[in-house]
Amino acid sequence: MSSNINEAFAAERSTQIDTARARQAAWDQRVASGKLTPVGNGRYRVTDPGSYDNGEILVNQGGLILPQHGLDLTGTGDAALYSAVPAWHGLGQIIPGGISDIDEVLRLAGIAWQVERRSVRYSVDGEIRTVPDAYVTVRDDTHAPLGVVGGKYREIQNRSLFRFLEDLVGQQGVVWESAGSLRDGRKVFVSMRVPQAVTIDPGGLDDTIELFLVAINSHDGTSTAQTVVTPWRPVCANTERFAVRDAQYRWTIRHTSRALDRLEEARRTLGLTSAYAARFGAEETALARTDLAVNEFDRVISDLWEPASADDPQRTRTNDTRRRDTLHAMYRTEAERAGRTAYAAERTITDYLDHVAPRRPGKSMTEEIARATAALEGTDDDVKTRAHRRLMRLVGGGVQTG
After folding, report:
1. For residue 73, is it within any domain?
2. 3 state SS of 390
């Protein structure tokens, strides 16, 4: 038996070595053909228009080909991220317990720079012409262009996000949870923890959920600035950003000369942190006390993702089966902790969207960063909201537990 095990191990190890060599040979061939262009520090840009990862920055670590993270890099090569707790990718400046000094967070997060508007010019036969009513936004530290905007666009500086959140909660010297930038500085975010936590099913499940305020700003003109109220479950790092009934949990700020004048409106909306917390806790507790049979959970899945039909391609049917099987397995696991309840179903769906659902990384992103960016930007908020509303319809109609 021992001999067989050793032989199997040797064969497996030989296969691993051969695979690594094949990867390295393929990498070397791409470099030699000009499809990978070195850009310094062991990084290569994909220069292959026919490839899905064209333009992406890759690194070769011992034969393992990895896309770069999507965080902006400061001039020292450090990731532009500050966090009060270790981040999902192990990058950035981690300050246990957090700090309240805005300028220090700006420095640690690598976002102390300002944004400037510069005229857009072009050359025709040696003559420089200016595009009317068009500007390029530029970082004042690296002078890198971020985007092209119109004449009415006004910059919202990174520091203003911190002041905005402080004004929003009417509290100076708050402890900042995280801050950083993505996509070469085109997007910047900052978050703070709301003092009160929410306890789901007190005296029963006693599940604790933290509330955060997250401000997200873009400097490239592609989107408005946004502020989000985000429930976050520390045990699995879910972002459970679904609407509680009709409560507004995300509001936008346009880049205009009066961009932050909506403070009073936003603060009225934020009267929601306490009201939101109370309603959020009540609805989640109701879900935790509503039994849910497996077949009903299957119907919820079908409402969220239309089932594949016999006429669909095999790949579509395979993906549908895989998703359904994965969700059922996750529900069984969550039910061991929270019981077969609507709350366990909602946790399962949120877990799946945040951690398991296939997520194709964008340019210069690992899959983990792509997931985190999707959570930050609310890519799956609509699905989470629909799941919440669908499950809330069962409250009162199902058997109440505990």
Report:
1. no
2. helix
